[in-house]
Amino acid sequence: MMKVLVINCGSSSLKYQLIDMETESVLAKGLCERIGIDGSRLKHTPAGKDTVVLEEVMPDHNKAVQMVLDALTDSEYGVISNMQEIGAVGHRVVHGGEAFSGSVLITDDVIKAMEECSELAPLHNPANLIGIRACQKLMPDTPMVGVFDTAFHQTMPEEAYLYGIPYEYYTKYKVRRYGFHGTSHRYVSQRVAAVLGKPIEDLKIIVCHLGNGASVCAVDGGKSVDTSMGLTPLEGLIMGTRSGDIDPAIMQYIMHKENLDIDQMMDVLNKKSGILGISGISSDFREVESGCEAGNPDAIRANNAFVYHVVKYIGSYAAAMNGLDAIAFTAGLGENNGKVRAQICSYFGFLGLTVDPERNAVRGVETIISTEDSKVKALLIPTDEELMIARDTVEICR
């Protein structure tokens, strides 16, 4: 059974995990920070050992990938004897557009299709492609697999993905809802079925991926039928710094008042809004949580607005699926903030959902947090996108 290197490339960062697929255990993981910027460094953590910090100039992603491979094969803190032990590389790719409804072996044609999706995700896809090319250059004989954030949502019906704008914008430019966090939503929904001991085909599940970026997904019979993010990750829930859903006319109104152009306005919606914008405190939910505990009205206001938006999406998806068996919470906030989980679930007493306060008083542990007699189950499921990427990679490289 092979060892898979999972790569998640950002514009100035590169996260990685090396997973032994025989045991599905992480051999090492790490992060290259500040690629192409002063002060670049690699944090490398072999399983069961201390983190090694290597400060070295990384002018580009080629150098970053080389440093990762060097760290993995290092005689002191490495975990493999040579690069040939890496059987395949799985790459996280943010946007696959309509071209990809599943993970694929990366070929020249696949790269071309990924480039065509780049204008839909200008911050992410070019970085993902740079990571793929850097790996191909250094590991020319190792198979590479692309796993797309959008792929899981390609099962959405037309009525869920179309916007109320002229249809020609869809036919000409593919303007539609794509959704993101698909790899996480897929992993978590599969775990829900396993924990409940029921076939996923028989379940209606709502997954709440609540982190700095946040989305809700309706999974009916194992397939995504709707999700809160749209053409871009800006739509949907109130997030760390993103506005989520707003009346589009707000943009024109503020642009006139503040004398902003469209790029400046988008910067406000992407980077200065959400929890940060409402609270004025921070985009970090942990600081908002502390603020709520201290009785800070700004923190409480932001927290309550966030919760309310999540609740509205869950309610609408329960209606869209004509039923609900389980709600799952995952990602940074979903896994670690029991108060927010309880607050969200408190709205669904009418569906027969009751949270058990004792079961809910945990962080980051896979567990059922609802009571035994709760008609709708609530679960905490730590996500593992890297493992999902590695599993797809093995499946495709068989």
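^ that was protein a. below is b, sequence first then the tokens
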Amino acid sequence: MKTDTIAAIATGMSNSGIGIVRISGDEAFSVIDKLYRNKNGDQVKLSNARSHTVHYGFIYDGDEKVDEALVLVMKGPHSYTAEDTVEIDCHGGILMVKKILEAVIHAGARTAQPGEFTKRAFLNGRIDLSQAEAVADVINATNEYALKSSVGQLSGSVSKRIRDLRAGILYQIAFIESALDDPEHISLDGYSAGLKGELEVMISQVRELVESADDGRVMTEGVKTVILGKPNAGKSSLMNVLLGEERAIVTEIAGTTRDTLEEHIYLQGISLNVVDTAGIRDTEDVVEKIGVDRARRAARDADLIIFVVDGSRPLDESDREILEFIRGRKSIILLNKSDLQIVVEKDDLEKMCGQKVIPVSAKEEQGIGELELEIRHLFYHGELKFNDQVYITNVRHKEALEEALKSLEMVRGSIEDQMPEDFYSIDLMDAYEQLGLIIGEAVDDDLVNEIFARFCMGK
């Protein structure tokens, strides 16, 4: 099938050492042949060059020399898009890469749509849909865990798990259909018991993937973290320590923080979306009361609550209110101001709240390392391992897995109810098709277009 030849700037639009303009399609080599001249100024047909070679020369737009460049030639199907592809490495100024792109357009290419290069890689069968989505995740990764997970998905970690599951389901469907078509030669006697055993394994594997989505969301979006405590407990000081700068105002005056303050923090591979809040207490101050109400609302929506206890003052009603509020939630309790005379005993506080308490001094920056380790433990169950563990980070994938899980559980229910075998194949096929949506089988054009529309122009 003949395709348009597309082109786009593949590097960020900023002044840099190198800029890349990418060309892909049936006429990619025809386009570069019109633009490229060697170091002696002679026109050379790169369409005759060997694939995966680099050529030094100049890019011309008509008779105008535009820039000195390196040109990479990649013949399909051995390229990112599986089409003939050319990449022009030029100087990286914004104006320069725009002029190179204009020359490419003048020579017969058209401007690529967002994500069109990756879309062509998918449509041409070089990658499946889950791998294509992982390309965007790699680009948008904001922390080490998200990047490692996305790279794993790009290399096919999710695809392999899904294909293995589908192969097992398809085998069962084929066996049932064959037995129903030819009962004289293929017997279903005792089949239900064997299928139930196979189903338990499949259900366990799909449920594991669904449950991994919680960690996956934290990887990609970050941990929504709210710092709670009574006034002057040291919440803003902790926020500044985590940020590494004086972002929140810190004074000795109780109630200094009147509103929520939100910042993104990166701690040793962990992304935190941290909200510093007004001190929790009963107050007649109208403005402070609004801040306290906002603090409570933020805490209700949080993934993690960090409760800062002022160890230099006895626990009061505000502390007890917060302790009751966080009961049953993911939370970390910090006994702050350990550099001062402590009047709240760590052991007593642990007995009261029923969980570990970490002594810290936000002022002296003590105990922060232990806090980071505790956050990692809460959300990642210890150090993540990417050699064989697969994490679902895409909401679309999670929804498809949940539907597949329901279908597999319906098959199990049919077996327990001693339903006819043809009932099994209906729900097995539903599970097979739901899993297929993840890797891009039987998806409609609108969904494909929506996914790739979120990509950047040059990818």
